[in-house]
Amino acid sequence: MLNIAFIAHDRKKEDIVNLVVAYEHVFKDKKLYSTGTTGQRIMEATELKIHRFLSGPLGGDQQIGALIAQNEMDLVIFMRDPLMAQPHEPDITALLRLCDVHGIPVATNMATAEILIKALDRGDFGWRELVELHKPKAE
């Protein structure tokens, strides 16, 4: 089962809720994670169950980053607000860096998110199952 994380800055929360509502059928058989408030808002608008971490500024971004570092995340949808400075910017940069290091698809805007979700719906994430089979085991 694929693992997907949702994160959104305050002014992007409505966007991510609308996105997940529009593609709820794609996410219903996936294991979903989110930072606190974002996950709460998605669950209020859908029938999806989401494991919620702390809010981003309180460490939620880093909790999701830990799953990325363990290669246990298959897709991250992170609606960033590029027009507002974030007090936890180093956490955000670290999360995006981990996605790059581990080759995890990450969308930071609506256009990329829709492309990745449509790829997910087509089954184009099958390569992630191969990664899971061949990932190094923890020592």
From TrEMBL:
Active site: 61
Protein name (Swiss-Prot/TrEMBL): Methylglyoxal synthase
Gene3D superfamilies (UniProt xref): Methylglyoxal synthase-like domain
Pfam families for this protein: MGS
CDD domains in the cross-refs: MGS
EC number(s) from the headed UniProt entry: 4.2.3.3
Origin species: Paenibacillus physcomitrellae
Keyword entries, A-Z: Lyase
Cross-referenced InterPro entries: Methylgl_synth, Methylglyoxal_synth_AS, MGS-like_dom, MGS-like_dom_sf
Enzyme superclass (EC): lyase
Highest rank taxon of the organism: Bacteria
Catalytic activity annotation: dihydroxyacetone phosphate = methylglyoxal + phosphate
Domain MGS-like: 1-139
The protein's role, per its UniProt record: Catalyzes the formation of methylglyoxal from dihydroxyacetone phosphate.
Amino-acid positions noted as binding substrate in the UniProt annotation, renumbered to this chain: 9, 13, 35-38, 55-56, 88
Keyword Membrane belongs to the record: no
